[in-house]
Amino acid sequence: MTQTPRPLDGQVALVTGAARRIGACIARLLHGAGMDIVLHFHHSAAAAQALQADLEDVRADSVLLLQADLRDTQRFSQLITRIEAWRRRLDLLVNNASSFYPTPLAQASEMQWDDLIGSNLKAPFFLACQAAPLLQASAGAVVNLVDIHADRPLKGHPIYSIAKAGNAMMVKALARELGPKVRVNGIAPGVILWPQAEINEVAQQEILERTALGRPGTPDDIARTLLFLYRDADYITGQIITVDGGRSLQQ
Predict the structure, then answer these.
(1) Which stretches does DSSP call E strand in 21-127?
(2) Contacts of 179 (CB under 8 A, 6+ apart)
(3) Of the residues 78, 153, 161, 192, which has the maximum number of CB atoms within 10 A of its CB?
(4) Residue 95 CB partners (closer than 8 Å, separation 6+)
(5) Does residue 160 have an active-site annotation?
(6) How far apart are the C-alpha atoms of 189 and 32, rounded to whole Å?
(7) Higher pLDDT, 216 or 71
(8) How far apart are the two ends of the chain, measured CA to CA in Å?
(9) What is the pLDDT of residue 86?
(10) Is-contact 243 187, C-beta < 8 A?
(11) CA–CA distance from 202 to each of 198, 205, 230 (Å)?
C-alpha cells in the first residue's frame, strides 16, 4: 500500500546559502512541497530577490529574506528572533552555506582557517544551538550538507576537509543532544556541480571515471534526498546519506 506523503503546508524551513546552486534548488523543492522558506544569503542579494519573486508568484508572502555573514555568530539570536516574529515557528534548519577553496599546506593561513572552519563548522553548530528551542517546539529537524571529503580528504584542501569532518561529527553529536524532539541528519554530496574555480575537461573526466555511475549528479538529487530525510524518514537520525553516484566506492 502506497503511503501518501505527509503535507508540509504551513511549516517553515530556514535554508542557509539559499540564493544559488544547491541551496536554491533545495528552497524551490521545499517550497513546492508546501513549506514557507526563510531564504538566507550573504552576498547574492540579486539572486535571492529573484528567487523570492519566483516563489511568491506561486504563493504570496511565503518567503522571508535574511542577509547575514554567518561567520558573525553574534547575529544568530537576531536572525532567529526575526523568524519567530514572522511565523512563530521553525520546523527545519538546512545548514547549506559553505566556503570552498584550496589551502595547500605551504600557503595555508589562519585567515583561511577561520573562514573555512567558520562557515563549514562553527556557523552551522551555533545556528543549530540558537534555533534549537523553536525546532524542539515543533519536533523539527536539522539537515547539514556535509561532503564525501569528510571521510576522504581532498588533496590540496586540508582545512576544508577538516571542517567537513567536524561537520559530520556534528550531525551525530547534535542528534544525541537534540533528541528525542529533533532529528539531525546529513547529506554528503559527490560531484553535483563543478566548483566555480575552473576544472578542465580532462580532470572532470578522470573524476567521472572513478564514479560508479559515470556521470555527475544534479542539485535535484540533493534536494530530493533532503526532502526524504525531513518528510519521510521519521525514524532516521544521526545519519549521513552519501549522494555521489558511487564515487566513494573507489579503492
Answers:
(1) 36-41, 63-67, 92-95
(2) 237
(3) 161
(4) 16, 123, 124, 127, 128, 142, 143, 144, 145, 167
(5) yes
(6) 22
(7) 71
(8) 40
(9) 98
(10) yes
(11) 12, 5, 37
Determine the topology of domain 12-244 in CATH.
Rossmann fold (3.40.50)
Q: What is the pLDDT of residues 147-156, one digit of tens each?
A: 999 999 999 9
pLDDT category of residue 3 using cuts at 50, 70 and 90: low
Grid-cell match 569532518, residue found: 165
Cell numbers standing for residue 86? 514572522
Q: In residues, how long is the chain?
A: 251
Nearest of 185, 193, 147 to residue 24 by alpha carbon: 193
Q: Which residue in this structure is represented by grid cell 514557507?
A: 36
Cell 552519501 maps to which residue? 242
C-alpha cell at 158: 586540508
Place of cell 517550497: 31
Domain ranges of the chain: 12-244
**Closest among 167, 189, 190, 184 to 239, alpha carbons compared:** 184
| CA–CA gap between residue 154 and residue 115 (Å, rounded) | 18
Q: Which residues pair with 92 in a beta bridge?
A: 13, 141
Neighbours of 139 (CB within 10 A): 12
Give the three cell numbers for residue 72.
558573525
Give dist(CA 127, CA 77) in Å, integer: 9
